[in-house]
């Protein structure tokens, strides 16, 4: 089988290489992979920056989300059989090795892929979808009828969060560029705000919850838009402490989050996608051997939608 590996933090470090096929251990299933999602955490990890701590040893195979078919079951696994179509967001933040033609994954972190959900879309749903879900509902405790502001509403997490919040029955506002106004409106956003003309003072005390996909000064400036007792979930870890410090002494709460694998939640997201209630925007699909190009595209910040590596 073939996989993308890095052997060190160095320029052009992604290599398409032949490696041994893994064997499933107890509680694992062997997957014949069809597609893997590409996320900013992937290129940040491989580049040797602050996220490189996710690498426990070299060689390292990137990727935490996939869609594929069950090939074999490890000891003690039930509920799946060879030939089942599945998807998963697995092992995070420990290495998962999804940029590969085959991989072994924990059976309790995958879910069946429903009819009507193609492998490409399924592969890109895990990290962004679970981040949106856990931020809104587990951390943010968003309720029907509440008002939520999503900063970076057209982003990978943001466009899913807009839809999930609208499905919950919340009043959804989001920031984006003017070119994405109609797109976010079509996803269920009630108020679309051009971030380039944004005056936070005009939105003072309007929102019960903020989902912050921007961080830094933008997130700090947005705190004024929360109602008394309101809460913010901030995603960018690099500025999380700064944003939390800015809220100290007030009656608002700032929470951070690290997304966790959750097969039950992922199954719900997959079913919403399969029946058309949730739409994942896929920007481009590339072959596995073009992973380096996918990382460059992701790092450029100019991709609107999900990048997917086709593995089989």
Automatic annotation (TrEMBL):
Record-annotated Enoyl reductase (ER) domain positions: 9-309
Pfam families assigned: ADH_N, ADH_zinc_N_2
Domain of life assignment: Bacteria
GO MF: oxidoreductase activity
CDD domains cross-referenced by the UniProt entry: MDR_like_2
InterPro entries: ADH-like_N (IPR013154), Chloroplast_QOR (IPR052733), ER (IPR020843), GroES-like_sf (IPR011032), NAD(P)-bd_dom_sf (IPR036291)
Name under which the protein is recorded: NADP-dependent oxidoreductase
Organism whose genome encodes this protein: Nitrincola iocasae
């Amino acid at each position: 089988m073939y996989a993308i590996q890095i052997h060190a933090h160095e320029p052009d470090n992604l290599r398409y290489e032949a490696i041994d096929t893994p064997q499933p251990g107890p509680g694992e299933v062997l997957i014949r992979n069809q597609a893997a999602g590409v996320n900013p955490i992937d290129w940040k990890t491989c580049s040797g920056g602050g996220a490189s701590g996710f690498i426990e040893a070299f060689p390292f195979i990137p990727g935490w989300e996939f869609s594929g078919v069950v090939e074999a079951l490890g000891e003690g696994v039930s509920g799946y059989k060879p030939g089942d179509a599945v998807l998963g967001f697995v092992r995070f933040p420990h290495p998962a090795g999804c940029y590969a033609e085959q991989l072994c994954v924990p059976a309790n972190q995958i879910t069946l892929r429903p009819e009507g959900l193609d492998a490409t879309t399924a592969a890109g749903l895990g990290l962004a979808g679970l981040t949106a879900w856990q931020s809104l509902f587990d951390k943010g405790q968003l309720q029907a009828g509440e008002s939520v502001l999503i900063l970076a509403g057209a982003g990978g997490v943001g466009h899913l969060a807009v839809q999930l919040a609208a499905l919950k029955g919340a009043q959804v506002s989001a920031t984006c560029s003017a070119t994405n106004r109609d797109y976010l409106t079509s996803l269920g956003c009630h108020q679309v705000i051009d971030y380039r003309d944004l005056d936070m003072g005009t939105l003072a005390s309007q929102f019960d919850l903020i989902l912050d996909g921007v961080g830094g000064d933008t997130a700090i400036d947005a705190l004024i838009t929360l109602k008394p007792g309101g809460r913010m979930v901030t995603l960018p870890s690099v500025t999380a402490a700064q944003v939390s410090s800015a809220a100290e002494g007030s009656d608002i709460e700032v929470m951070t989050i690290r997304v966790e694998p959750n097969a039950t939640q992922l199954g719900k997201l997959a079913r919403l996608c399969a029946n058309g209630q949730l739409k994942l925007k896929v920007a481009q699909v590339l072959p596995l051997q073009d992973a380096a190009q996918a990382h460059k595209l992701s790092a450029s910040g100019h991709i609107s939608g999900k990048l997917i590596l086709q593995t089989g």
